[in-house]
């Protein structure tokens, strides 16, 4: 359920997500006033699919069971080259192979179907955007995705069908050259792909940005909201507003904060915009067929 939230730590700011603001926003969606929407997806957009959040306690507990000094070691490329076994002991639990898209992913597909989606960015590497049917040229996988694998020594590509057999066994696949094979996801010590930087240039053309379940705590992903025009509204769907205020969001005037679980708030937007029938028939219906 949507809640009005007072910014208690920032007492000078007023309430941010009144029903009036939400209704006005949904009316604008309904009337197609936004033609070039940019969407940012974070970890909370996938948690209801069984995917672990990057800051989940489960990850910390798994690292402790494996006697690792800290969870980040699991995603360190140099450590992976040294010993890939700890990563694969956890990976299948983090990103279940049979995970299905959530309403958040289908919402982005809905925007695409209505010709309102300019570009989407995701921090997640679970591949649920692709499973939701979002076109490749409409989604930037900032941290890679789990659909492909490659050898960290010779860079040879390996299919997910081939490697997922090992993933389910919590065992690392190895290349014919002897090197360990990893999913094509970003590890500490690796650079973001050029697709991210090319895609970020498109944000200058956005007339709305929607941030779903993304804390914006990691650079350069955290820099994306600043790349839209200075008068372009940014709608944030999350359970805590503090980090966004610290990132320069203005929920009193330009921007809007919608407090609650990402799935519930996104579904409420679909309902209030009068899109539920279209959503069920053309998005969910096609996904099930």
Automatic annotation (TrEMBL):
One GO cellular component, as annotated: nucleus
Cofactor(s) of this protein: Zn(2+)
Keywords: Metal-binding, NAD, Transferase, Zinc
Superkingdom of origin: Eukaryota
Chain residues that bind Zn(2+): 151, 154, 175, 177
MF term (GO), any: NAD+ binding
Deacetylase sirtuin-type domain location: 15-276
Entry annotation: catalytic residues: 143 (proton acceptor)
Cleavable signal peptide: none
Entry protein name: Deacetylase sirtuin-type domain-containing protein
